[in-house]
Amino acid sequence: xxxxxxxxxxxxxxxxxxxxxxxxxxxxxxxxxxxxxxxxxxxxxxxxxxxxxxxxxxxxxxxxxxxxxxxxxxxxxxxxxxxxxxxxxxxxxxxxxxxxxxxxxxxxxxxxxxxxxxxxxxxxxxxxxxxxxxxxxxxxxxxxxxxxxxxxxxxxxxxxxxxxxxxxxxxxxxxxxxxxxxxxxxxxxxxxxxxxxxxxxxxxxxxxxxxxxxxxxxxxxxxxxxxxxxxxxxxxxxxxxxxxxxxxxxxxxxxxxxxxxxxxxxxxxxxxxxxxxxxxxxxxxxxxxxxxxxxxxxxxxxxxxxxxxxxxxxxxxxxxxxxxxxxxxxxxxxxxxxxxxxxxxxxxxxxxxxxxxxxxxxxxxxxxxxxxxxxxxxxxxxxxxxxxxxxxxxxxxxxxxxxxxxxxxxxxxxxxxxxxxxxxxxxxx
Length: 429
Known about the structure:
By secondary structure, the chain is α/β, with parallel strands linked by helices. The chain contains 15 helices and 15 strands. The strands form three sheets. Strands 3-2-1-4-7-8-9 form a seven-stranded parallel beta sheet, sandwiched between helices. It has a six-stranded parallel beta sheet with strand order 12-11-10-13-14-15, sandwiched between helices. A two-stranded antiparallel sheet has the order 5-6. Helix 7 packs across helix 13.
């Protein structure tokens, strides 16, 4: 296969360069409250804006016991933990006029974790005949044999893999043995945002005269929010105007299994630490506009996450795009995107490190401005319009490659035939 990671976005061969492209998106879909659903919805809008003639259809992944009121964009439905529904969706896609299939892959949506990973995507991969591009939202270093086998199987059935960080590409090549020519790095998209209007947005939120530190996204223990809460006891000693906003609902899967236990633990910690008035919760599932508003109001953005192997973070990408001063633990994605002075990294579970870093920024306006400028200069290249164009150009290149393949196929003939007499299918007169 041609090295698609190096392709030049020129006019593709055949009629694929001019006719509308039909893309099937395999993912969770709004109104399901899920980070992958939000990502894919934003991506779909960016793809449609990049190519208004394109047709996008969804194969939506439902929870095992839930049904959502989807819009007309959802043509097929998959039921988690039921492998036969993945195969059925693939068979239906084969019968459609889809040109290319985009799977947004997160392990929990396509299988069951246990001592080994039980991969429910297998029947989909084995049934699908349309060209497939898979976006890997998680790329685990030092994978178990079952995880490594699952990812290699995806790579074998995919025309290409998309990842959102160069580190993920390196891991796939070195630890999974994936051909680097099959990997394309396209950044996590972010809303195009001008980093101004902080004072106005604070007034709108009735938070004027406060130094706002924020974290947003679905709330779960893996976010490590309790460490930033404890760090606030040190911050407010010298900055009593400081307010830490924890913005977002509890992760639906966590709420289903444990209810609001973790959020209750956090609120109790706030009370017992004497931080009422310095830590606040916004218990809402945010629209993109809400996210941008809270980011614009924020002085510092925090990701105190606990998983060192996290290879993507939509929330951190959004904060870069909004030009925020950022403090984060050094998980894989943060370590890459906050390099070269684009943010401050602190040790995992280090309340002292979080507190000291926040104070460094609050006490040094020039440092804050430099962090904001470097973050924005980097993040603006991740804006959704740019990402949407990259994805659509890449999909067209993949489809063009697929259509060109028969033309390059050498017709099998009698081995005794002279080489000059061998015809190239599609090119002979």
